[in-house]
């Protein structure tokens, strides 16, 4: 069955001009882009999106980072797209992420308090629907 996932090109990816390269990889894999929007996140959106990380040491730097510039919000579709995009993205830590993945090829440690790891991808169908509601509230 066709799934949907929420992908974010985080502010580091937009700032570095990697949006096109990242979307190219999603499309080259065979997934379909159903919606793409440049969003300047609000504190409310981020508090909801990152609710599970509240209280962790990297939470405040993470929110500051996500407020530092626009994010490209994307809905991608296809069979297996949720797991498939996470596989394309690679490990959370860009230093450890395997070459061939978005984070492994394009990301690195910049010596900051938060891992600037270029992209986010939903981790389950439930997260995908919840997160699509946060980033595409009109849909
Ligand atoms: P993501 O998995 O999309 O959502 C949570 C984000 O928090 C994660 O990407 C990283 O950007 C950041 N993050 C997760 N773990 C750490 C950590 N240990 N230190 C700093 N930042 C982190």
Automatic annotation (TrEMBL):
Single GO MF descriptor: nucleoside diphosphate kinase activity
Cofactor or coenzyme needed: Mg(2+)
Keywords, alphabetical: ATP-binding, Cytoplasm, Kinase, Magnesium, Metal-binding, Nucleotide metabolism, Nucleotide-binding, Phosphoprotein, Transferase
Record-linked Pfam families: NDK
Subcellular location: Cytoplasm
EC annotation from Swiss-Prot or TrEMBL: 2.7.4.6
Known catalytic reactions: a ribonucleoside 5'-diphosphate + ATP = a ribonucleoside 5'-triphosphate + ADP; a 2'-deoxyribonucleoside 5'-diphosphate + ATP = a 2'-deoxyribonucleoside 5'-triphosphate + ADP
Purpose: Major role in the synthesis of nucleoside triphosphates other than ATP. The ATP gamma phosphate is transferred to the NDP beta phosphate via a ping-pong mechanism, using a phosphorylated active-site intermediate.
Protein name: Nucleoside diphosphate kinase
């Amino acid at each position: 069955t066709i799934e949907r996932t929420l992908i974010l090109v985080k502010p580091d990816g937009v700032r570095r001009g990697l949006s096109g390269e990242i979307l190219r990889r999603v499309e080259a894999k065979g997934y379909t882009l159903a919606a793409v929007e440049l969003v300047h996140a609000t504190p409310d959106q981020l508090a909801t999106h990152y609710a599970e990380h509240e209280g962790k040491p990297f939470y405040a730097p993470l929110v500051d980072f996500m407020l530092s510039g626009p994010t490209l919000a994307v809905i991608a579709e296809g069979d297996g797209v949720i797991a498939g995009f996470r596989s394309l993205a690679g490990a959370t830590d860009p230093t450890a992420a395997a070459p061939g993945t978005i984070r492994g090829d394009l990301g690195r440690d910049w010596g900051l308090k938060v891992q600037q790891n270029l992209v986010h991808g939903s981790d389950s169908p439930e997260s995908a629907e919840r997160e699509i509601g946060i980033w595409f509230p009109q849909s």
